């Protein structure tokens, strides 16, 4: 797996990450969503450098201009709920991408420490020979990412796969590295130390879906 750990290099990305983690600033859900979206834009920009480009000639008002254009057919798939603002950020830059949505949520069974991943909703175009971007801000155990990828198998074989995340636990990064093809790219803003016994990333930021959209009742 090609791991691109973006906060290894200092940039304005650190400001957005810091605001998302900050227990006071993260209470502003509009800013929290906007920071996810802004990081989505940064992930998209960095990812685009690995795409294929083709030479094209466009006309300006003053003459012909030869430029390199992205030559990938992109399908952007995000995992509900917290993936929605990340999806929007990526779509701000890949504005002609096709789109897929999938629900994958943790269903806590009897003990709070144990959960299973439930996939219920899936809307997806053909993935055959396309560039698939799987977007989810949090990569904790990595199980949602893998469950999503497996649920997408009937829609075709993508030419390349990119995982777009904001914060991952080292354990989740290792998990996707072990379960995805070695040519897969992981674009991730920060890699944190560990998971706690409820599967939350430490230090992480808390529950990204709840911070973005409010707390939900457990089913
Ligand atoms: O790597 P994993 O251990 O699978 O955990 C990561 C998942 O947890 C979060 O979603 P959550 O289940 O909280 O749903 P939500 O976005 O609706 O809050 C997050 O957005 C990922 O989808
Ligand atoms: O730390 C975590 C783990 C999973 N999902 C979140 O939103 N946060
Ligand atoms: Mg959540």
Automatic annotation (TrEMBL):
<keyword id="KW-0547">Nucleotide-binding</keyword>
<feature type="domain" description="Phosphoribosyltransferase">
    <location>
        <begin position="9"/>
        <end position="214"/>
    </location>
</feature>
<protein>
    <recommendedName>
        <fullName>Uracil phosphoribosyltransferase</fullName>
        <ecNumber>2.4.2.9</ecNumber>
    </recommendedName>
</protein>
<dbReference type="InterPro" id="IPR050137">
    <property type="entry name" value="PyrR_bifunctional"/>
</dbReference>
<dbReference type="GO" id="GO:0004845">
    <property type="term" value="F:uracil phosphoribosyltransferase activity"/>
</dbReference>
<keyword id="KW-0808">Transferase</keyword>
<comment type="function">
    <text>Catalyzes the conversion of uracil and 5-phospho-alpha-D-ribose 1-diphosphate (PRPP) to UMP and diphosphate.</text>
</comment>
<dbReference type="GO" id="GO:0005525">
    <property type="term" value="F:GTP binding"/>
</dbReference>
<keyword id="KW-0328">Glycosyltransferase</keyword>
<dbReference type="InterPro" id="IPR000836">
    <property type="entry name" value="PRTase_dom"/>
</dbReference>
<comment type="pathway">
    <text>Pyrimidine metabolism; UMP biosynthesis via salvage pathway; UMP from uracil: step 1/1.</text>
</comment>
<keyword id="KW-0342">GTP-binding</keyword>
<keyword id="KW-0021">Allosteric enzyme</keyword>
<dbReference type="InterPro" id="IPR029057">
    <property type="entry name" value="PRTase-like"/>
</dbReference>
<comment type="similarity">
    <text>Belongs to the UPRTase family.</text>
</comment>
<dbReference type="Pfam" id="PF14681">
    <property type="entry name" value="UPRTase"/>
</dbReference>
